[in-house]
Amino acid sequence: MRKKDYLKEPIKHIDIKKYNVVEMIENMGDMAFSARELSRAGKIYDTMLRDKKCTVILTLAGSLFSAGLKKVVYDMVNNNMVDVIVSTGAIIVDQDFFEALGFKHYKGWYQNIDDNELRKLHIDRIYDTFIDEDDLRICDETIGKIANSLEPRPYSSREFVEEMGKYLKQHAKNKESVVLSAYEKGVPIFVPAFSDCSAGFGLVLHQWQNPDKHVSIDSAKDFLELTKIKIKAKETGIFMIGGGVPKNFTQDVVVACDVLGYNLPMHKYAIQITVADVRDGALSSSTLKEASSWGKVDTHCEQMVYSEATIAMPMITAYAYHKGGWKNRKGKRYSDWLNSEGKNFSKKTASNL
CB within 8 A of 180, min separation 6: which ones? Predict the structure, then answer.
């Protein structure tokens, strides 16, 4: 088979606006097992959106956008259904920024596949999805190009992703991009492990070519900026897809506030969609009730949903979209605040909030 025989059918992103699942999700609340859990999660998310004091933080882990969930998050950003995003690098760079450059993910398969043949053809596989490695290399090089254009200094990942948004504002071939939309809407995107994706290759190339003066990513600055948002917001809700670094990073800001001397409330609302097994003690599988023992999540309005994300996330989000609680929300534009007052935000200025 030739390369074009594998890369034929693009992945299509599901559009939650087309499917009013409100009645079904509410009826599932009268069922049992995962159906009832999913129904309750949808109601909690809708409650978050109706709570005018609540800042909504979305965390993303796993190969979500390559699997067809990009438009779900794109619509969340555009409709003020999320105020802050914390993500893995692959989702933001290899998947969203990658598609914004005009490239695509393709429907593949995982049974009876010769991965050695894929490697020879420069095709990468994510379970049943194929990606053109040659296109990914262009994505890597574009990240290096952006880094080369910036003042050499440490940046938070949020600052660098904004620069990616600026680049897409002028050069995007596919405007349906979370990075671009978040840039326009002032929604900060944090990627705590930024080098663990195509961005890492681009930054390695940039630093290799500029050993003395170069751009670097300061993960502590990420943590400080998100902590500043928590201090300013006070009340927060988290909608977590998967686990990993984004989950822990976001939950930890409550403790960080305490370290800085602020006795702020735990995350008021919390939802997590996961397939991780709690028995191995891993971070991704730790329950929201367990997080309460660390002082991170309030247990009064939390829900674990044990389901694969491509099934549960569109249903929960579509429920909240069609319930319409978001219609009275205004964008908080935390990126703008971090670039202005938040830049010099300190204990003295925080006391005036």
Answer: 100, 165, 168, 169, 172
C-alpha angle 60-227-84 in degrees, rounded to nearest 5 = 35
Work out the average pLDDT over 272-276. 91
Q: How many domains are contained in the chain?
A: 1
Looking at the predicted structure, is the pLDDT value of residue 282 above 70?
Answer: no
- Residue 351 is assigned to a structural domain of this protein: no
Chain centre to alpha carbon of residue 158: 12
What's 225's domain CATH number?
Answer: 3.40.910.10
> How do residues 241-268 score in pLDDT, each as one tens digit?
999 899 999 999 999 999 999 999 999 9
Judge whether 352 lies within some domain.
no
Other beta carbons less than 10 A from residue 58's beta carbon:
25
pTM of the model: 0.95
Beta-carbon-side half-sphere exposure of residue 87 (alpha carbons within 13 Å)? 28
Contacts of 47 (CB under 8 A, 6+ apart): 269, 301, 325
Which range is least confidently modeled, 141-145, 147-151, 188-192, 346-350? 346-350
- Where would I find the H helices in the chain? 3-6, 22-28, 33-50, 70-78, 89, 98-100, 115-120, 133-148, 157-171, 178-185, 198-209, 219-233, 244-259, 288-293, 309-323, 334-339, 347-350
Q: How far is CA 32 from CA 29, 38, 40, 312, 320, in A?
A: 7, 10, 11, 15, 21
Positions marked catalytic: 296
DSSP string, 210-239: -SSS--EE-HHHHHHHHHHHHHHH-SEEEE
Cβ proximity of 333 and 186 under 8 Å? yes
d(CA 195, CA 317): 29
pLDDT at 283: 63
Region of 9 on the Ramachandran plot (φ > 0 left; ψ -120 to 50 alpha; else beta): beta
Q: Which domain holds residue 278?
A: 3-342
| Residue 353 confidence class, pLDDT cut points 50, 70, 90 | low
pLDDT at 93: 97
